[in-house]
Amino acid sequence: MLVLIGVALVVGCAASLAAIALVDLVALLNDLLLVAPKTRVQWESLPLLVASATLLVPTLGGFLVGLAHRYLSPAGHPLGPPAVIRAVQFHRTLPDLRSGLVSTATAALSLGAGASVGQYGPMVYLGALFGGAVHRLRLGIPGLASIAVSCGVAAAISTAFNAPVAGVLFAHEVVLRHYATRAFAPVTVASVTGYVIANVVFERPALFRIDFPGVAHGYEFALVAVLGVLVAGAAVGFMRLLLALGPWLGRLIAAPALRPALAGLAVGLTALALPDVLGIGTSTLRFATIDGAFGLGELVVLIGAKIGLTALCIGAGFSGGAFSPSLLIGSLVGVLFWTLLSGALGVPSSGAAIYAIAGMMGFASAVIGAPLTCILIVFELTRNYDVTIAAMVAVVFSNLVSHRVFGRSLFDEQLARDGIDFSQGRDHPHMAALRIVDHLTPDAVTARAGEPPGDVDWRLAAKGWREAFVLNGDDRLLGIYTPGRAAGEATMADLAQPAGLVFEDSTDLAEAMTRLRGFVGDAVPVVSDDGTYLGAVSEADIVAAWLDESARLREEENASV
Question: Taking Cα atoms as reference points, which of 402, 458, 66, 58 lies closest to residue 236?
Answer without folding.
Answer: 402
